[in-house]
């Protein structure tokens, strides 16, 4: 099978969220089953990271979209990457989606419509005369116009569309339709119209051959009003037609505490003395006091979805009980400021670092006793898998992928209500377990023994591709 994997980010070059990790790992896991190539926008980080990048095609503008070039290069391990080269759209400072302040670019509709249109040109063989795809796998709203452009241009090609987070939909004014080349006849309730506006995500839901999301629990949840974000009707319809699947994400093999080069000291299950060296070092790096109490970690985007406010509300209780907290991440300014204040209120017991560094995150997982994941909803979540592999027991709300990957009382703790009290109830269970060394050791061993590889998800996707084709 020739598969084009379209994504707006990949941790090979640039990462904002968990999609980047999936977009680097899943295509590699699919290599035994397919000739798979990744297509990404030509951000500066991508252009710098591909030493062998060569232009293989040029495409004229379409409607109000600019012209662009298509480059082809390879990552250091040989993964083929197509790059949509359009300097005025993608060669900007900041993140893939906004400026350095985190404010979205005002022309994101044009940016990601151009990217989606370019992906279709590659897939049908118009961009690179030496390659075309049998199927496109598109990810999240930034790629969601891909199946739409194929439909509107009458270029039939199977598409699989993965919803990584339904809350981010790419909604724009109806005025954008003509400049994006979206026909008027597509703007209706069963097309791209969403409360009198244009929804990129809805195009993916309507026109794709098959929909997936990143856990079976989340696939069920998004067909309900509570989690459906106004799109539960169409999702329920696709589910009833057996066109919505949940395939749990995996994590790559680098998340192995025995070999990870980022750690202060490598360790194995049961080698708690070596693991404790990571705890001592991460406390020192973050300026925490020497302590015999438990160390709690929050490694997350600092947004409402992640339940950051619930951690803030319980911080004093954790510190008063003898615990310490390390927070690292970036997100909404209100949460960043509130967390800084918590650090000021509890010097030596709470440490906050605004920003994200992968190697540092690995050291935090390896040094902490518990990882806080009180997400209000969590399509899959990766941190709970990372934490378990490194012996940090996750504390999570029973939702989405957390419900599928945390075994309550065995490899972590789950609570039913996404509330301050719900989180505190599991934090109390964690303190009790920390004081019972045999039970703590058993849970750590069980957590570290969890298998979260990409092997089974890759087989599931390969089978789905065959069915869609």
From TrEMBL:
It comes from Tardiphaga alba. It catalyses: [(1->4)-alpha-D-glucosyl](n) + ADP-alpha-D-glucose = [(1->4)-alpha-D-glucosyl](n+1) + ADP + H(+). This is Glycogen synthase. The keyword Transferase applies. Residues 284-424 form the Glycosyl transferase family domain. Residues 2-237 form the Starch synthase catalytic domain. Gene3D superfamilies: Glycogen Phosphorylase B (3.40.50.2000). Its EC number is 2.4.1.21. Belongs to the glycosyltransferase 1 family. Bacterial/plant glycogen synthase subfamily. One of its GO terms (molecular function) is alpha-1,4-glucan glucosyltransferase (ADP-glucose donor) activity. Synthesizes alpha-1,4-glucan chains using ADP-glucose. It is an enzyme of class 2 (transferase). Keywords: Glycogen biosynthesis, Glycosyltransferase, Transferase. The lineage of its organism: Bacteria, Pseudomonadati, Pseudomonadota, Alphaproteobacteria, Hyphomicrobiales.
């Amino acid at each position: 099978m020739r598969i084009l994997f379209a994504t707006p980010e990949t941790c090979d070059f640039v990462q904002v969220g968990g999609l980047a990790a999936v977009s680097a790992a899943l295509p590699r896991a699919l290599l035994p089953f397919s000739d798979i190539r990744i297509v990404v926008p030509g951000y500066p980080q991508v252009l710098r990271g591909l030493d062998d990048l060569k232009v293989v095609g040029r495409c004229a503008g379409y409607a109000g979209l600019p012209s662009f070039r298509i480059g082809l290069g390879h990552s250091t391990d040989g993964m083929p990457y197509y790059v949509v080269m359009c300097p005025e759209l993608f060669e900007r400072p900041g993140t893939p989606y906004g400026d350095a302040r985190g404010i979205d670019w005002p022309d994101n509709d044009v940016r990601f419509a151009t990217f989606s249109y370019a992906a279709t040109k590659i897939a049908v063989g118009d961009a690179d005369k030496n390659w075309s795809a049998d199927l496109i796998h598109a990810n999240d709203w930034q790629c969601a116009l891909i199946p739409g452009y194929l439909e509107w241009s009458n270029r039939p090609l199977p598409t699989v569309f993965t919803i990584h987070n339904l809350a981010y939909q790419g909604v724009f004014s109806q005025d954008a339709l003509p400049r994006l080349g979206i026909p008027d006849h597509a703007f209706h309730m069963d097309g791209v119209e969403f409360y009198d506006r244009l929804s990129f995500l809805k195009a993916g839901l309507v026109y794709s051959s098959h929909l997936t999301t990143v856990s079976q629990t989340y696939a069920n949840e998004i067909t309900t009003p509570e989690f459906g974000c106004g799109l539960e009707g169409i999702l329920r319809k696709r589910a009833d037609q057996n066109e919505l699947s949940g395939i749990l994400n995996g994590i790559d093999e680098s998340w192995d505490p025995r070999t990870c080069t980022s750690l202060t000291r490598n360790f194995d299950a049961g080698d708690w003395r070596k693991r404790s060296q990571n705890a001592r070092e991460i406390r020192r790096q973050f300026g925490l006091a020497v302590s015999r109490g438990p160390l709690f970690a929050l490694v997350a985007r600092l947004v409402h979805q992640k339940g950051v406010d619930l951690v803030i509300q319980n911080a004093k209780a954790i510190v008063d009980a003898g615990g310490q907290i390390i927070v690292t991440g970036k997100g909404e300014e209100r949460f960043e400021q509130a967390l800084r204040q918590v650090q000021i209120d509890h010097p030596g017991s709470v440490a906050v670092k605004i920003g994200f560094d992968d190697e540092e995150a690995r050291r935090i997982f390896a040094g902490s006793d518990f990882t806080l994941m009180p997400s209000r909803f969590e399509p899959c979540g990766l941190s709970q898998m990372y934490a378990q592999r490194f012996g940090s027991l996750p504390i999570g709300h029973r939702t989405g992928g957390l419900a599928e990957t945390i075994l309550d009382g065995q490899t972590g703790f789950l609570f039913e209500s996404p509330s301050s009290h719900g989180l505190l109830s599991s934090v109390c269970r964690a303190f009790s377990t920390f004081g019972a060394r045999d039970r703590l050791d058993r849970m750590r061993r069980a957590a570290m023994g969890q298998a979260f590889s990409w092997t089974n998800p890759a087989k599931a996707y390969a089978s789905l591709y065959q069915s869609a084709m």
